[in-house]
Design brief:
This protein is of the alpha/beta class. The protein folds into two domains: 69 residues; 166 residues, Vaccinia Virus protein VP39 (Rossmann fold, 3-Layer(aba) Sandwich), CATH 3.40.50.150. Helix 5 links the parallel strand 1 and strand 2. Helix 2 packs antiparallel against helix 3. The longest helix has 24 residues. The radius of gyration is 17 Å and the shape is globular. The N and C termini lie far apart (46 Å). The structure holds S-adenosylmethionine. The site of S-adenosylmethionine has 24 residues, from helix 3, strand 1 and strand 2.
Amino acid sequence: MDTPRKWLPTGKPWSSSKPATSWRAASATWTCDAIDAAFAEGRIAEEERYAQVEEELTDAYLAYREPWRQSAKAGDEAEWRWARELILDALPGAGGTFLDVGCANGYLMECAQRWGRERGLRLEPYGVDISWRLTSLARRRLPHWTDRIYEGNIVSWIPPRPFDLVNTGLDYVPPGRRRELVQHILRDVLAPGGRLVLRPERYREGVPTPADQLEELGFDPQGVIEARHPTNGEIRTTAWLAAP
Ligand SMILES: C[S@@+](CC[C@H](N)C(=O)[O-])C[C@H]1O[C@@H](n2cnc3c(N)ncnc32)[C@H](O)[C@@H]1O
């Protein structure tokens, strides 16, 4: 493996980002599913599952130059905003602390603060990621926030402070640990009355939405948020739960 490429996010090994995006995204998703299957079948230990996912995702993100692609989002910047800004609708009140779980290069931390400001919200962003390669990239990109970017596995991470809004993906842990992940965030990561919001997903007929996924885990989402794409009309959707 070409180690310097992992370290230099500006290095793009493909001549055109378009084919690389679809190839990389499809490949990383497929590989992560295969890694989860190997863990479920007992062929790899849990620590190995996290290590293999980190290698796969981080290699994929660091192949790109655009900051949203280094945070796993294909498309252009308008697409990125449509895909993520709806998270802010889950904020309880006119401001507070925001933790991005799986903060990658920190781009969502930056954008959440900027988008919030445009809405009159005062957001103080923080991030945690399992990948030391990505947390070090985030710290290099955001030197004024180095002490707000943590390396850790969310399933066991004990935060130095509570947060008002936490954005997370359920797929950061194997299927059998997703209920525990949600309970951990509600109990140990959020401030009282704070909210957990899931990473928004494109609405697809017949595919479980984030709200469905929370219900399947035995939780009752207190809010569902949707955003329509400004040009093609597609829907992004997510759901939130409040800490007691
Ligand atoms: C899809 S990106 C999310 C980017 C951004 N947070 C967002 O919502 O758009 C997933 C990130 O989660 C990180 N990650 C995966 N498993 C994790 C875990 N168990 N704990 C913390 N971070 C994890 C990956 O390293 C990767 O940077």
